[in-house]
Write a structure and sequence with these properties.
Elements lengths: L19 H19 L32 H4 L123 E2 L12 E2 L11 E3 L2 H7 L8 E4 L9 E5 L4 E3 L2
Parallel strand pairs: 1-2, 3-4
Antiparallel strand pairs: 4-5, 5-6
């Protein structure tokens, strides 16, 4: 309802204003609208009124609007709801909901929901959900879900899910799931799942037997792909590339365990 002004007339007692009954009706209607907006229609709420300019503390409030400022500066507490928009500032608190937008700042708190957008800053907290966007910063926290986006920074945390994206930075944490993307950085952590992508960096940790390695150079210990026999080798590596090296523990009657390399046309024993 629009505000109803009480007509007072042009001059005092000229008879052109509202009569007392009409004026009282407008006055009551205005107050009913205010009491309905700030209470239950007859009683005002005891909650503090939120103003536009004053600094106030909100308790048990749900904010459904859009954050246009930096989250680090504006929100220093925990975010328990979902963030569906983009976050251009830093997240220093914990987020227990899902983040479906892009995060261009740093995330130093824990994320218990899914991150479907891109994170261009550093992720130092733990993520218990899935990360489907790209991570261009460093990840030092643990990710218990799947990482389907690309990680261009260093991945120093542990990933208990599958990594289907590419990791171009160094992998110093452990990955207990499968890696189907490429690992172009150095791997000093352990990968207990299968690696079906390419590994181009130095491998110092434990890698699975079903890995594919291209242009691999190392100054330290390197674990080769290990197969019980040549049948398992050929099944895992259907289209070998020249320069691949594997270790066959039996060799299907070829004798003792062998290091084998692919010369471009056939597997050749190296010992």
């Amino acid at each position: 309802m629009a505000y109803q002004a009480i007509g007072r007339g042009t001059s005092a007692n000229d008879g052109t204003g509202d009569d007392l009954r009409t004026g009282a009706g407008k006055l009551n209607a205005n107050f009913v609208e205010v009491y309905t907006y700030l209470g239950d229609g007859s009683t005002l709420s005891t909650d503090a009124v939120v103003t536009e300019t004053a600094t106030q503390t909100l308790t048990n409030k749900t904010i459904t609007g859009t954050f246009t400022g930096n989250i680090t500066g504006d929100v220093t507490g925990d975010v328990t709801g979902n963030v569906t928009g983009n976050v251009t500032g830093d997240l220093t608190g914990d987020v227990t909901g899902n983040v479906t937008g892009n995060v261009t700042g740093n995330v130093t708190g824990d994320l218990t929901g899914d991150v479907t957008g891109n994170v261009t800053g550093n992720l130092t907290g733990d993520v218990t959900g899935n990360v489907t966007g790209d991570l261009t910063g460093n990840v030092t926290g643990d990710i218990t879900g799947d990482v389907t986006g690309d990680v261009t920074g260093n991945l120093t945390g542990n990933v208990t899910g599958d990594v289907t994206g590419n990791v171009t930075g160094d992998l110093t944490g452990d990955v207990t799931g499968n890696v189907t993307g490429d690992l172009t950085g150095d791997v000093t952590g352990n990968v207990t799942g299968n690696v079906t992508g390419n590994v181009d960096g130095i491998v110092g940790g434990t890698t699975p037997a079903a890995g594919t390695f291209t242009d691999l150079t190392a100054s330290g210990a390197v674990q080769l792909a290990v197969y019980a026999d040549t049948t398992l080798r050929d099944t895992a590596i259907a289209t070998p590339a020249a320069g691949m090296i594997v270790f066959v523990t039996d060799g299907d009657g070829l004798g003792a365990a062998q290091f084998q390399g692919y010369d471009g046309s056939a597997w050749v024993a190296l010992n």
